[in-house]
Design goal:
Blueprint: H1 9-19, H2 22-29, H3 37-45, E1 47-50, E2 64-66, E3 69-71, E4 75-77, H4 91-101, E5 105-107, H5 115-119, E6 125-129, H6 135-147, E7 152-156, H7 166-171, H8 186-191, H9 199-207, H10 214-223, E8 228-233, H11 236-244, E9 249-252, H12 270-277, E10 282-285, H13 292-301, E11 305-308, H14 310-341, E12 354-357
Parallel strand pairs: 4-11, 5-6, 6-7, 7-8, 8-9, 9-10, 10-11
Antiparallel strand pairs: 1-12, 2-3
Helix pairs in contact: 1-14, 4-14, 11-12, 13-14
């Protein structure tokens, strides 16, 4: 299909599944244990936003403040690894689309294109940090991110180990030789290709620090002056600790259903976390966002913005930069419509809407 023909994100999802090799599609679409990814959609679909009427809200702006500055929508591209699996230019094409739409693009530690190449797009970049190797190596990554102009640092905290992902295990999934984590040592890139099961899981579990503490967040706060976003929070107590240790924002997330499979839908945790931290830090949300209405749901629950993940990969697979552009076009158009229909003039108004959560 042509990306421009997509009427909604589901069209692009079907197009990506048709375009990608089956094992790559399973890597993108799959979740942990019994496909916990499905609970995120169930949770969001159960959120009913009560619209207001006669508010005179026809002139809508979707602009919103996010860590590092204002964006054209309360939306950022989530950090995702190995985007060259979707398209030869990978992260560069996706960042170009984010630049065109005036929203931040998060670069993963496991990026398959260099930070320099991605920064050359002049996109508003966030850098997502996994704790790989020594403190010295991690600090070098943080400093490199600052040098290329990243405007926020996202510390992902919900991957002490990579959860078992049945599709990848069954497929014996491994990266092709042309795709690797370019910021990391080449030795890891070669070692993970050997053996059975999921080679990506072997790579991750051999590389990531399995026992991070809040002291590691404190260290990063001392190393940089970028806003710090702690991603992967579901418990309000952890959100409070993140604020205590210098976080400017937290991302309420269950890693898109790819990590802890016994947890709740991530959307169910936005309200309790927002109540716990108050104005101490921003609340962002990811895991299952598939429409502008979902963005409105998150805002009404107490988030100030969302991160979009898999749909960006669908767009890349279907049409590179043009495909990601279509994803972001649809989300921004749908959000503007949802705001008008809910009686809101801006994303900030959505926090005053009433919400019912049911089946």
């Amino acid at each position: 299909m042509m990306a421009a023909e997509a009427v909604d994100l589901a069209d692009l999802e079907r197009g990506a599944e048709a375009a990608l090799p089956a094992s790559v599609w399973d890597f993108v679409a799959g979740g942990s244990t019994r496909e916990a990814v499905c609970s995120n959609r169930t949770g969001l679909d159960a959120v009913h936003v009560i619209p207001r009427v006669l508010t005179g809200a026809a002139a809508v702006s979707t602009r919103a403040p996010l860590p590092g500055g204002w964006a054209q929508a309360p939306l950022a591209v989530a950090p995702m690894a190995y985007q060259c699996l979707m398209h030869p230019e990978g992260e560069v094409e996706a960042a170009q689309a984010a630049k065109e739409h005036g929203i931040p693009f998060s670069v993963s530690t496991l990026t398959s294109r260099s930070l320099g190449d991605i920064a050359a797009t002049d996109a508003d970049l966030w850098f997502q940090l996994y704790w790989v190797g020594s403190d010295r190596r991690v600090r070098e990554l943080v400093e490199h991110a600052q040098e290329v102009g990243c405007r926020a640092l996202v510390i992902t905290v919900d991957v002490p180990v990579m959860a078992r992902r049945p599709r990848d295990i069954r497929n014996g999934f491994r990266l092709p030789p042309s795709v690797r984590a370019v910021l990391l040592d080449e030795a890891f890139g070669e070692a993970h290709r050997q053996g059975s099961g999921s080679a990506v899981a072997r790579h991750t579990n051999g590389l990531f620090h399995p026992a991070l503490t809040w002291d590691h967040v404190r260290k990063v706060r001392e190393w940089c002056d970028m806003p710090i976003v702690v991603k992967g929070i579901l418990d309000p107590r952890d959100a409070v600790l993140a604020a205590d240790h210098g976080a400017d924002a937290v991302v309420v997330s269950n890693h898109g259903g790819r990590q802890f499979g016994a947890g709740p839908p991530a959307s169910a945790r936005i309200g309790p976390i927002a109540d716990a931290v108050g104005e101490r830090c921003r609340i962002l949300f990811d895991s299952g966002v598939r429409s502008g209405a979902d963005i409105l749901r998150a805002l009404a629950l107490g988030a100030s913005g969302v991160l979009i993940g898999r749909p960006v990969l669908w767009g890349l697979a279907v049409g590179g930069r043009e495909g990601v552009t279509r994803v972001l076009d649809l989300l921004q158009t749908e959000l503007a419509e949802a705001l008008v229909l809910a009686g809101c003039s801006s994303p900030g108004d959505a926090g005053d809407l009433d919400v019912e959560v049911g089946s």
